[in-house]
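// run 5 | inverse folding | seed 20
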């Protein structure tokens, strides 16, 4: 990685500066993250069956490093994929903010007991993130989007892709187990992520589909 950075460090720095756009979207999110009078409840029976689990606060917090690490990774190794991922995250956050404005949702949180490190971390998250603007889940949106780009990239080893996928799944589960999101929030976040990935990689997807379909059509013609 050092050789990549030393050869192309100016472009890497320029790419990383563009991540300020995520911080700007976060400010917009923070402005909307409040009780504005009407809060919709999208909870389901699935949520009632999911118990609160303080230990899932670890993968929930790991999300911050997960996003930062892979933005840096693609900034170094693949500028095109970096910008596709970055603008995918930004456009996803902006789309979420539009939904938050017109259809605000909320999550009922449990009363926390105990002073162990895990409970303290949950309290820290609760105190810095109001229980509003939950659907779609931005945590899930970013995690699924990153996992999609990592799995479709040719550079990482299979082991790296598996680890990335496992982390992404744990982050998704954590949003529900620490009661930051409901099941519908996670589903909506994942669906939005796949839609955005398809939109930013339309040509690649069409090429893959065509590549697989041509041999099939040729085989059919020979019959």
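// decoded
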């Amino acid at each position: 990685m050092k050789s990549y950075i030393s050869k192309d460090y100016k472009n890497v720095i320029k790419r990383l500066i563009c991540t300020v756009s995520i911080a700007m979207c976060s400010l917009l999110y923070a402005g909307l993250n409040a009780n504005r009078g009407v809060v919709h409840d999208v909870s389901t029976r699935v949520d009632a069956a999911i118990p609160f689990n303080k230990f899932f606060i670890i993968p929930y917090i790991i999300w911050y490093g997960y996003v930062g690490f892979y933005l840096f990774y693609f900034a170094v190794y693949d500028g095109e994929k970096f910008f596709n991922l970055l603008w995918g995250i930004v456009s996803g956050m902006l789309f979420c903010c539009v939904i938050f404005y017109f259809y605000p949702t909320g999550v009922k949180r449990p009363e926390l007991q105990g002073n162990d490190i895990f409970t303290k971390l949950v309290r820290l998250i609760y105190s810095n993130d109001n229980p509003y603007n939950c659907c779609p889940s931005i945590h899930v949106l970013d995690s699924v989007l990153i996992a999609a780009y990592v799995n479709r990239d040719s550079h990482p080893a299979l082991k790296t892709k598996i680890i990335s996928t496992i982390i992404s799944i744990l982050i998704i589960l954590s949003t529900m187990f620490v009661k930051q999101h409901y099941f519908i929030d996670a589903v909506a976040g994942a669906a939005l992520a796949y839609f955005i990935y398809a939109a930013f990689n339309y040509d690649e997807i069409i090429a893959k589909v065509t590549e697989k379909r041509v041999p099939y059509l040729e085989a059919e013609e020979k019959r």
